[in-house]
Every structure is written in structure tokens, then in C-alpha cells.
Predict the structure of Glycoside hydrolase family 13 protein.
Amino acid sequence: MSSKRHWWHNAAIYEAYPASFKDSNGDGIGDIPGLISKVEYLANLGVDAVWLAACYRSSGVDMGYDVVDYRDVDPQYGTVEDIEKLIAKLKEHGMKLIMDLVVNHTSDEHAWFKESRSSLKNPKRDWYFWRKGITMRLPDGTVERHPPNNWESIFRGSAWEYDERTDEYYLRIFSKQQPDLNWDNPKVRKAVYSDMRFWLEKGVAGFRMDVINMISKPDGLPDAPVKDSKTPWQNATALCCNGPRVHEFLKEMRKEALDPYGDQVMTVGEVICTDKPADVRAFTDPDRQELNMVYTYDLFGIDMGSGGKFDPRPWTLSEFKHDIIKWQNALAYSKGAWQTTWLESHDSARCVTRFGDKDPKNRTKVAKMLALLQSTFSGTFFLYQGQEIGMINLDPSIPLSEYKDLETHQTWASMRAARAAQHGVSIEDVDMAPFLTQVHLKARDHARAPLPWTASSPSEPHAGFSSAPPKAKTWSPMNTDSATCNITSQLSSPSSVLNYYRHRLSLRKKFGETVIFGDFEAVEGTLGDGGVFAYWRKPLVEEEGKARGKDAVCVRDILVVLNLGNGEGVEFKMPKGMNGGEALKFFVLDDTYGGEGAKGFVGSGENVVLGAFQGVVFGY
Ligand code: TEU
Ligand code: CA
């Protein structure tokens, strides 16, 4: 059942966010030369590829996800030549480069859109979605104009923007500067494939595809069902995601743009609002020839209510565990499927803050426990910059006015207006405190804070990220904790989160047959709301006895036992292992409390006692 293996199956891929990784020229903005200067650091960490988040020439409204020219690099980050140098430097260290592909929409400054908006007759008019508005004559004779349908933008408000020049609206699911491309037009598809080949020719190893399941819109763009009668704009993701031709387009893209570069090119889709395993497999099953893998979003959305990401949603540990079990099982390699494992991205907040507790003394424990958790799951491993040093969310003392993300500000403004209307008060009188708590927990700004390479000091306040003058500001606020959380000091401390990630990534490969490709089996009795979560990882039967890689270690099954909570002295009774009653001895392969030196044996039936956020791996 299991499918042909490729380099990306057991790869660890590091997401670098160009604006915040490393600034080389002191302007306070990270850049490609900065990234090139740290390739050794990434090699040493043990990653196989870098996914560079959007770095194309952009209008700068949505941090590069509003692309003006797919064949150019934004001048604030560098040049196309810099990307070529980056590819070469990564290659020297045995690593590859994955680029972002943002083709559901362009920037409104892209040449295609400028032409499209210029006149009704322009040959590129149909490259985007232009529609007449709905006009209504009111009893007093005035005329009101409304967008063509009731879709809500993911960044709030209507998903349509009125353009005076031709008296029509264009569709833009994200910000008004991000018009959606009309993929039904074959010329659009050809142009996109050609831009993809431009990068593949340069040796890019694949693409992370931004909201790729939104590229096919439903015929007639029908209204979304009304779920919230307080607003005219309704969530339309069910209509805009996984539209009628999405699979056809992806198959065509694979054939025309990707396959000519061989089966080593990898694709990972950002497939949002898709939580059924069968729907995910429709994108990723190898025989369908679409994508290699996608991100799934259950954990990403676990704390988001029906009113959007800043709507609080109380979640339980049991839900957390079941979300994991669901995907680990449904997309197992033995079932011919594949998946990704990730906890952070440039769209999330920091996992230590989201899934840990507030006690600073537990911070390192939480970070290591999450490293152990993620690295014992099947799937291509994605690590987001800063996760490897256990960065946490921005300190609440940093005012909202310093936050840069348009999603944060647009959502803030729209929630404030909605509350004012709801309570019949003026905007200034709305109590936004509960919302601020949610921003502190979930804003994208947290992941986008520049990386602290060293501890900051009065003469070097930008923590080694940038040599900008002390009084200057980095493009987005740095966190306040670089004295205790920075790369240089973690590199030299054997018990640091950073060294734990290095250790985990190497163990993950060593036990890859079990941990990456094997089956997942949760231990019943650990699936409730208690802290303990235990699961087996079992190598595929078909792999047993086969010669394995030269460094591979022959452990049959692995048992992971974690405490996801802050309770101390939490007990777990060791299971009997595969052979029922036999008194098996388990040896400790890894322990988040003990680091690399962890050793010792535990018998079946014995109690293991875990401290707050401790995780242990057993083999036998
Ligand atoms: O994200 C898609 C997406 O749906 C996010 O906007 C997500 O809903 C939001 O971040 C939740 O907080 C991709 C990119 O990763 C993101 O950075 C872009 O803003 C977006 O597409 C538009 O291109
Ligand atoms: Ca710079």
C-alpha cells in the first residue's frame, strides 16, 4: 500500500520569514543576504530544506502575500541573484530551497491587474472577477449600490471592492489590494505555470502553495448561507474552498509546470477549511498526481470560535489529543497517504504560549515537550523560525499600536464597530479588553517578531537581528526577553531548547522507519482531559527485517509518554507491550528532563511518574 519514497518524506523543513530572520544591512528588515549568512546555522540544526515565505516584489500590504511580480524579489529583501546565491549555498550544505507560491490572488499593483482594471474591453479583464454591483432605488429616489454577493473577506468586511473607473466590483477574498485571479481563464493558468518554471529553472526544489484550495470559485458566485444576521457579510469559505475545478487545475499544474522538473520537486498545499480526511486525500494521494502533502488545521484553529480567530474558544486536552490522533491515523503512510507535522507558521502565534501555561518556570519544559510531541509524529516535519529556541508571544507590555499585521488591525476595527452597533454605544466606549486578551494570544504578529540572535544590550538593542542604530526600530517589534531567549546562548548551552530540537531531529531520522513512516496507535486510557498522553509508534510490517539505512537503529516499537499539563507527579502505568503478559523491559530512549544522557529501564506494569510537561520515549 505504501508509496514510493522521496527526499521530502523524512525531511525537516525550516520556514524562514524573510523580514524577521536576519537583517544584513541595518535597515531593520531581514533580507536574503542575512539568510545566506546563517545557512551554516540551519545546517547545524539538522534541517534539510528551507521554505522561504513570500519574498516576491510586493505592494507590502500583507507582508509579501500581495505579489506585484512573480519573477522578481522585493528590493527590501534582495534580488533574484541573491536567491540564486542562496540556492547554491544551501546546496553546498546538502539543503534545498522551497519557495512560496501565492497565486490565488495578485497585488492590485501587479501588471495583470492594472491592465485588467483599465477598461471593460481590456484583454485581461477576465483574468480577475469583475461584476456589476446590485443597485437599489430607495423610496426617496436615492440609489444605493451593493456588492454582487454577500461574501465576507477573510480579513473582514465585504469580499468585493468597488472600482469607479469601470463602475464594477472586483473580488478579493483577502485585502482590497489582493484581487483574486480567475483560474477558469486558461491564459491565467498558463501565465502562472510559466512563472513557476522561472523558479524551477533556477533550481528551486518545490513550492508551498498559498491557499491553493481557493483557486476554483463556484459557478455564478452564489450568496453564502446567512449564518450571522447581524452583518450583511457571510463567511464564504465553504463556497470558495475546494471549488468545482480545483483538482483539475492542480493536475494540470502538476503536468505542465512541475513534472518536467522530475519527481524530486515537492509541493505542499495550504489547504484551509478542509477537515475531512477524504477531502485531504483527494489532494495528496500519489496516484492522483496533484500535491505531495498539505497542512491540516485542526490544532491551528483549536482556540478559535465561530466568530473568527479572535473569538475565544475554550478547548480541552482531550480535543487536542483527538485532533492529533485523527490525522496521524487517517493519513498514515501505510494507508498510501502522507501528511505534514507542524505547530507554528507565520500565520500562527507561538506554540509555547498557546499550549503551555503562563508560569515562566515551565517555559523550557513546555518547549521541549512540544518538540518531542511534534517530532514523534509521521509526516514531513515543518519547523518555523524561532520555534527551535522556544520563542513565546510578544510581551503584553508591547502596545497594539506597534503591531504591524493588517489582519490584527482590520479585525480589531471590525469587531469594535460591530460591538458598538450591537450595544448602541460609540466606538470609543466599547470595552475591547477581552479582545485584547485574544490578540495577545493569537495575533500573527507574535510569530513575526524578529529572531533574537544574541542578548540585547543598550548599545545593541536589536539582539543581533539588525545593526540598525539603537534608536531605530526594527520593522516589527522584537520581543522583550532576548536576555534569556536567544540563539547564541542556546547554542552553547547543552540543555537548551535549541539543542533539544537538534537532538530530536537527529533521533527522528535515526528511528525514521518507526517514527516517520510507522503506524500510530494511541494508548487508551490516556485520551481524556488528564495531562498524560501516550502513543505507540510501530514500524510497518512490510519494513520489518529489511535492511535499513546504515545509521538506522533497530528498535521495534516506540512508546511516547507525555504530560501535556502542569501537574507534578502524574502517573502512567507501563503497558505490557505487544506480547501481552510478558514482563518486558522498556529502555528510555529520550527524556525531555534528562537530555541526551537519559538512560534506564522500566518494566511493564510499573508506574512511570512524570513532572510538569515532561515527555519520555521508550523503546524495547
Ligand atoms: O494564509 C491563508 C489564511 O487563510 C490566513 O489568512 C489565515 O486565515 C489567517 O492567517 C488566520 O489568522 C495565507 C498566508 O499564509 C497568509 O500570510 C496570507 O495573509 C494569506 O494567505 C493571503 O495570501
Ligand atoms: Ca535589511
Notes: The chain has three domains: 12-106+186-221+235-491, 111-171, 519-619. Residues 406-423 form the longest helix (18 residues). The radius of gyration is 25 Å.
